[in-house]
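Journal club side-thread
Mid-discussion, someone asked how the predicted structure for our own chain would compare to the paper's figures. Pasting it here so we can look after the session.
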Amino acid sequence: MKPAAPEIQVVIPQELRSLCGGRAEHSLPARNVRELLGAIARRHPQVHVRICDEQGQPRPHINVFINDQLCPRTELHAPLAAGDVVSILPAVSGG
């Protein structure tokens, strides 16, 4: 039997907070980034469809950070631990 997944703090971008009760931070159980995205899909499906594509991958304009470190799209299996904070941020561009 697998141990319970740790609770991970997730920071939702301002633009999407109205879709998840207006809160900036949520606590969701996950062992890695992929599991965390799945937990968002189950708890806040309207947020999930805006941050992930049909395959569950972060959309090109979405960046995922684990404790201020960018998580590359190829490393969604990156492990998470209790106390980690995952931030979901839309890319910013301009000139």
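Post-session note: The radius of gyration is 13 Å.
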